[in-house]
Amino acid sequence: MTRINLLPWREMQRAEQRRQFTSMMVGAVVLMAGIIALVHINMASQISAQESRNGYLNQQIAIVDKEIDEIKDLEKEKEKLLARMNVIQELQSRRPQIVRLFDDIPRLLPDGAYLISIEQSGDQILMQGLAQSNSRVSSLMRNVDSSAWLQIPKLDVIENKSGNKESGRSFRLRASQVLLIKTDDGDA
Predict the structure, then answer these.
(1) Cα separation, 99 vs 80, whole angstroms
(2) pLDDT at residue 159 tops 80
(3) What pLDDT is attached to residue 40?
(4) Read out DSSP for the chain?
(5) Which of 96, 109, 104 is nearest to 173 (CA)?
(6) What are 12-31's pLDDT values in tens digits?
(7) Which of 26, 45, 107, 183 has a C-alpha 20 to 30 A away from that of 10?
(8) Is the model more confident about 113 or about 59?
């Protein structure tokens, strides 16, 4: 006898294909979800690692910024100290000048002239005094001009003290002090 297959084999084949397709789709979705989860976990770990690196770098930058501020403060302090040292050195170099100036002044004064006051402002010297005549004042100016420690004499005022010619002249003379130049042996 012939057998007749009454089962709808085409429908079964289609159902089998649908089941395989569905299982493949579910497998693909699960696989994609797994891949996406792995990529997400990997990216999150990389972001976390980079954030920790950035945090470390920010800490190191803060430390370096503090060191830079300290260096700037030290440089300012150094500049202040250098300025003080320069002032002290300038005062030290000028210290013998006043002694030499006072040693030189009696030699500069001609007979018949004397000083009432001497004022120093920087390298400018203001001398006020009395002289018997204008020629004594002129002689003083020549002596100042030829001095090794004074230069450029300028007469501000010369006037009769009391009104008669024999009583004397009051004068005010300005001069510049010559600055010493240090040599190897310490003398100028």
Answers:
(1) 29
(2) yes
(3) 96
(4) ------S-HHHHHHHHHHHHHHHHHHHHHHHHHHHHHHHHHHHHHHHHHHHHHHHHHHHHHHHHHHHHHHHHHHHHHHHHHHHHHHHHHHHHHHHHHHHHHHHHHHHHSPTTEEEEEEEEETTEEEEEEEESSHHHHHHHHHHHHH-SSEEEEEEEEEEESSSSTTS-EEEEEEEEEPPP---TTS--
(5) 109
(6) 888 999 999 999 999 999 99
(7) 26
(8) 59
Q: Are 134 and 152 in contact (CB under 8 A)?
A: no
Structure tokens at 176: 């510049």
Distances (CA, A) of 11 to 22, 25, 29, 53, 163: 16, 20, 26, 62, 150
Query: Is a pLDDT exceeding 90 seen at residue 77?
Result: yes
Residue linked to tokens 């001398």: 127
The amino acid at residue 85 is: M
Buried-exposed string 99-114: b where 16+ CB fall within 10 A, e elsewhere: eebeeebeebbbeebe
Average pLDDT value for residue range 130-144: 86
pTM over 0.90: no
Q: Are 115 and 102 in contact (CB under 8 A)?
A: no
In the predicted model, what is the mean pLDDT of residues 72-83?
Answer: 95
- Torsion-angle region of residue 168: left (phi > 0), alpha (psi -120 to 50) or beta? left
Q: Which of 86, 92, 132, 79 is nearest to 109 (CA)?
A: 132
Residue 46 to residues 43, 53, 180, Cα–Cα distance (Å): 5, 10, 72
